[in-house]
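Model it.
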Amino acid sequence: MRWLLLVLVACKPIEIDDKKRVDDDTAVTTPTPSPTTPSTPEGHPEFSNPDEATDLDADPDVLHVALTAAAHTHSIGGEQIAGYAYNGQTPGPTLRMKIGDTLIVDLQNDLDVETTIHWHGVAAPYDMDGVTWQMAPVAAGDSFTYQFEIHEAGTFWYHPHFDTESQVDLGLYGVLIVEDPAEPSADEELIMVFDAWDEVSDHTDEAADHHGLDPARVAWTVNGGLLPIYEGTGGTTARVRVLNVSNTGYLDLPPMRQIGEDQGLLPAAIDDERAVLGPGDRVEFEWLIEDSWTLQASPYSVNGGEAWGDDFDLLEIEVASTDSATPVSWPFSGDRPSIDPGHTDIVYVFTGESGGEGWMINAEIFPDVTVEELPLGAEAIVEIRNLSPAEHPFHMHGHHFEVLSLGGEIPAFKRITDTVNLPIGQALRIRLVADNPGDWMTHCHILPHAHQGMMTVLRVLE
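Modeled.
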């Protein structure tokens, strides 16, 4: 007979060294925007993937890169907007590695404020996660080296976790791709980083608040460009990695052949469902490049899902020839979902509102939160209930988890992820294996919600 010992403690307040803790509520100085430069609207830019980082190490099992965070002027629709960037580009350099490689990142902070780097979706060691209660943030003018191995494939991203709402909003983000060498390759890989801006002309004087909630007024950029044109080659197949880095905006995409999400390939392809990406979420598609078309999205509101309005254009795909393309033979596992045992070990209840007391988890506002504890290696069933008037992308640091059900629906196959959107009035049940020790941030990835208190901490004991 085998016994499972599961110890849960939910009565300890988090203890943080005040000399080291600088949370997302800390006030910082954001850059003063330059005056608007008169200009005419730009033509449609040519689509291109973000430039990849230069590897400083000859070892094929090590990716060693240098990232400099500094002030940067964004050119959006012909307007010049003050912000930040890594290595002078937004999105920042793409980091590409394979399962089991070591990542080394030398961060140089040339901002006039402190910053960190968090590795969204990666089970990084606790002291490399970029949250500010395990280490002081990197001071202006200072540097820090992140170093750890990555053992899971997927489309991840990196961004600060200090004054997160502002620094991500200003342009500090980039893509991290971890490849599985056993997977086949498509003819081409497209990386599409989507960012939502209110009508650009409204925010040339307010750099720290360019992301809006109103789906009728949002303009989406793709890798920094408005409605770019991708010139494809007929008869080829593309693996398309899509990332939503918006602070608040949702991306509601039409049915396309979905082959993966946050943690790499799915167990089976999805051909007939829309893909709704909340802030921080990722998805992978397979495109057969055979003819010209326009990628569109539908209006979507954080306050209730599908919104009023017409579909809007995101990207033009232009193909000169109409040759047939052959799908890739992806090694789908077909894994079925785990059976929900029916019990619940941890419950997180999302409540609150904008302009009121704030956004809360279990009626608590970060950092004054109760810390749930799990012993290392324990398996826990966590239920997240959304009793608030807004949707929330649930995200957990240091771990990925299996979705057992969402709104009472069991997935068609085993779904391993790290970010899941939770609609209003629904519950998400997940299976978590606590295999990474540390005090892990757990929060809504609508960054203003997190900034206003919708964060808590899960402690995994040594």
